[in-house]
Every structure is written in C-alpha cells, then in structure tokens.
Amino acid sequence: MTTDPYAMPDMDELLDQVRKQTEEVQRIQRSVEAMEVKAHSRQNEVTVVLRGDGRFTSIDIDPRALRQYDARNISEIVLEAVNNGLQKLAEASSAKFAPVIESAKSIEA
C-alpha cells in the first residue's frame, strides 16, 4: 500500500493524539509535583527533603556537625545537600517525562 505524500492528514486523529499527549503530560506533571526526594551532603552531615514542585520540606543538620564546623562550613555543607537534592529532582523528573518525549519523537519521524 502506498501513501499519498500530498494527502491531508486526518485532523480528528491528529487532534486526538495531541489531546492524549496533553493529558499524559499533565498526569506526569502532577506525579512529579507530588514526589519527594531526599538528599544528603557528602558525609551525611545534612539531609534535605524536597517536593517535586521545588519546595524544601525539611533540612536536618547533624548536631555533631554543629560542634565540629563553623558557620561558614555549615552553610557550604547545607548548599551541597540542597544542590544534591535539586539534581536528584531534575533526574527523577526527566526520567518520568522520558516516555512522553520518546513518544513525541516517534510521531515526528
């Protein structure tokens, strides 16, 4: 069966595909916003928890670290844990959206 390269695509079918993809993206977005990610500093002195919407819900500092380090070092350790959390969130979000991105690429091809 040959297809006519000049034939008009079925608009209802195209609109249905767009609607399904939009619904899938919205579903994934809700699931990303609801997830929680936990991350730590390199030596686990600081633990952070953040939600998929980017809000941090907790930052815990080991009391031993407060006795061992000065304020400047503590702030660097907190930043390390926060950046680790943001990286984990970005990776988890990308993984959740990967199937939709791959699906969209296959439709374009």
Automatic annotation (TrEMBL):
<dbReference type="GO" id="GO:0003677">
    <property type="term" value="F:DNA binding"/>
</dbReference>
<protein>
    <recommendedName>
        <fullName>Nucleoid-associated protein</fullName>
    </recommendedName>
</protein>
<dbReference type="Pfam" id="PF02575">
    <property type="entry name" value="YbaB_DNA_bd"/>
</dbReference>
<keyword id="KW-0238">DNA-binding</keyword>
<dbReference type="InterPro" id="IPR036894">
    <property type="entry name" value="YbaB-like_sf"/>
</dbReference>
<dbReference type="InterPro" id="IPR004401">
    <property type="entry name" value="YbaB/EbfC"/>
</dbReference>
<keyword id="KW-0175">Coiled coil</keyword>
<feature type="coiled-coil region">
    <location>
        <begin position="11"/>
        <end position="38"/>
    </location>
</feature>
